[in-house]
Amino acid sequence: MPHILAVDDSQTMRDVVKETLESAGYQVTVAENGLDGLEKFK
Which domain holds residue 18? Predict the structure, then answer.
C-alpha cells in the first residue's frame, strides 16, 4: 500500500486530505508543519 506524508498547517485540511486519501486506499501520515513533517519522514 502506498504511504503518503501530507503536510499542512490547517487541521481542517489535514483531516480532509487524510480522509480522502485513505478512502482511495492510501496509508496517510499527516504533519502540521515542515519541521513536524521532516521528523515524521525519518
Answer: 3-41
Indicate the number of domains in the chain.
1
Express each pLDDT in 1-42 by its tens digit. 899 999 999 999 999 999 999 999 999 999 999 999 999 998
What would the grid cell of residue 17 be? 486530505
- Distance separating alpha carbons of residues 13 and 19, to the nearest angstrom: 10
Sequence-distant (≥ 6) Cβ neighbours of residue 31 within 8 angstroms: 5, 6, 7, 37, 39, 40
The neighbour count for residue 3, using CB atoms within 10 Å, is: 8
Strand, helix or coil at 2?
coil
